[in-house]
Amino acid sequence: MNHDVSTRSSAPSPAPTHPTWQRLGLSLPALIVSCQAVPDGPFDTPPFIRAFALAALQSGAQGLRLEGVENVRTVRADCDCPIIGIVKRDLADSPVRITPFVHDVQALAEAGATVIAVDATDRVRPQPVAELLAAIHAAGCLAMADISTLEEARAAQALGFDVIGTTMSGYTGGPVPEGPDLVLVQQVAALGVATLAEGRLNSPQAAADAVRCGAQAVVVGSAISRPEYITSWYRQAVDAAAAAGSSAQPGAPVLALDIGGTKTLVARVENGVITHELQFPTQRGEHPDQWLAQALAVTQGWPGGWTHVAAAVTGVVGDDGLWTAFNPQTLDFPPYPLVQRLREVFGVPALALNDAQAAAWGEARCGAGQGDDLMFVTVSTGIGAGLVLDSRLRRGPAGIAGHLGQWRDDAGHRLEDIASGSALGRQAVQAGWPGGAPELVERARHGEPAAQALLQAGVDALAQALARVQLLLDVPTLVLGGGLGLAPGYAPLLEAALAQRLGPHAPQVRPAALGAHAGILGAALCPLN
Ligand SMILES: CC(=O)N[C@H](C=O)[C@@H](O)[C@H](O)[C@H](O)COP(=O)(O)O
């Protein structure tokens, strides 16, 4: 049976640009399935490896990664697809396991491997990586470097490897992380090399995230071809669900974080009441790992413990827990697996959501909108919103529900760039009022026509957007928060602008009741699942 898999992909994909992908005949992004059995487990024989391989190729995989010369030879007899071959050895004098010897390279090439992968980590090894690379190329194969750090990726690129995989990240010391190393995927892709994400892509979502982070191909192994691992993940998940069900009772203590563009607030919340809290500047330019490390450090001595950790953050958090910046001017960082890292750093179950969404939930549960469906709108540095509809917080699978500030008017201006506190502050300074937005509000209150006109223009832009939301959703209550939203005189202006557009159908405008704590309380009161 022949499998010309290079023509099998039905997914629309960009033309392969990197020479490696062209030589392999892969359409991108490519799914490569690693068919490796648990050593000495019930599937650890060439016929089972062959069956996994053929099943994968019949279902959308374009290539395979196989361990062992016999397995490569057996599968090659049945398919023409690219095969990444490796040999694993447990050596007494080196931690390197993947294809450590030149004779392994030669045997894999002879058995039919297209690509040969070697461990290219910076560790003690029996034969230099450069010798293995030369042997791979001499055998007419492509060379893949399995690396664990950006430095190793750079070294492999300099040596002339054809493709670099993040395979070894998490396996060179210390506990193995729960999820894939998407930061490394992103860093390697930025080098401009053919980038293959590999390691702990244990869900379709994780594989898709790796592609979003720049990988042109993904290797998925255990989640497809190690039923023993898959079974144990299910076992752990159902056990954890049972444990969370008993611990995360309403009122149980929660550690809540609110990570904003300028400051991070951390608090322990029990029964909806803040028992401890602390604030520190968000170090812009640092990696999100640092922000979590600082939150962990400052909460270390707090008594009472917590059942889980909940984060409200600026930006977007999707269903998969991946955190991305929506407006990099507010806070910029690479896509970050926030929920997973919270779990790892704090050692307890975790959830995360957008800060305005969290504030909406906080106001709905214990603030200005108790019992009502509502729209929460914060007019502050930016403009954000959150929706509680039919008593449920609407986040959306991508996490973008409520990102009102990102709306653009007909001229292409983003709402928060023309109507937020910082936008009006900039306009005030341009008008000659160095006190920015607060001075603008003050001058408008005292009847200065120029200040009134500026403020009114911002209010009108927001009211225009809110009127459209209202026509779509018919929300009875609009809870208004944020520095500018709560400034004296702002709410009546907005109310009037809404009434002008919606008449009796305008929502009732109420000031937010929880102030700076809305996000942290909302996150803390969010159900864990
Ligand atoms: C570190 C190491 O030895 N990785 C090996 C490399 O071939 C395999 O055990 C992995 O299964 C493979 O990398 C795919 O990863 P995952 O099974 O997590 O999808």
Automatic annotation (TrEMBL):
Keywords, sorted A to Z: Isomerase
Domain of life according to the entry: Bacteria
Enzyme Commission number: 5.1.3.9
Protein name (record): N-acetylmannosamine-6-phosphate 2-epimerase
